[in-house]
Design goal:
Structural class: mainly alpha
Number of strands: 6
Order of helices and strands: HHEEEEEHEHHHH
Radius of gyration: 16 Å
CATH architecture: Orthogonal Bundle
CATH class: Mainly Alpha
Strand order of the largest sheet: 1-4
Helix content: 40-55%
Shape: globular
């Protein structure tokens, strides 16, 4: 893809995405996951969702890549077992501990990606039992600026406060995706709908 992967824009000093661009890209990824769940003849679990597997075309539209360890769900299957290990930091707890994968595993990985994009913190850089999701959750709703990537701050005070509120809403969606229990995670259809509504709010800022 002409613009490389999303990872290139995460930690490079030469490339920068603003809040609107990040949100649009992450909506593209959410739509791709929704398609894998409902648009295919058999539901597909990507199993290795991470920034390097989201590729950007010439208009900065994101496309999912690397389906090397993906799984197909049969019509009657809600989940299945696998011995294939995905990338540390993005693996849902039930996949890492038990090898149990479902579409909810992709939801978890998506939530981690969403948090990573807006905090610019890698999910595997935390020590002990602390995770990126826990670190962010401790700062919501009152201390959002403590966790948000400083590059996303706008100098104008009024615009900044509105954007902070929008980013707080995005982080809340991400945390709902990262719930420990698969049953408590938001489904991708709702994620797409919520993020599209948030995008409308952002465009009004």
């Amino acid at each position: 893809m002409p613009n490389g992967s999303l990872e290139k824009y995460l930690y490079s000093h030469n490339y920068f995405l603003n809040t609107r661009q990040i949100l649009s890209i992450m909506i593209d990824v959410a739509c791709a996951l929704e398609y894998l769940r409902h648009g295919c003849s058999s539901p597909v679990i990507h199993c290795d969702l991470k920034p390097s597997n989201a590729l950007l075309d010439e208009t900065m539209v994101a496309h999912l890549s690397d389906f090397g360890i993906s799984k197909l769900l049969g019509e009657d299957q809600g989940d299945l077992y696998t011995k294939t290990l995905a990338t540390l930091g993005y693996i849902a707890p039930e996949d890492g501990l038990e090898g149990l994968v479902s579409t909810k595993c992709d939801v978890y990985s998506y939530g981690v990606m969403l948090l990573e994009k807006f905090t610019r913190r890698k999910p595997n850089e935390f020590e002990g039992d602390l995770s990126l999701a826990q670190w962010v959750s401790y700062s919501l709703p009152d201390s959002v600026m403590d966790v948000v990537d400083a590059n996303l701050a706008t100098p104008m005070a009024k615009v900044l406060q509105k954007e902070i509120d929008v980013v707080a809403s995005i982080l809340k969606v991400a945390l709902d995706c990262c719930a420990e229990s698969p049953a408590r995670r938001t489904n991708m259809e709702d994620v797409v709908e919520m993020l599209q509504k948030i995008k409308i709010q952002l465009l009004a800022c």
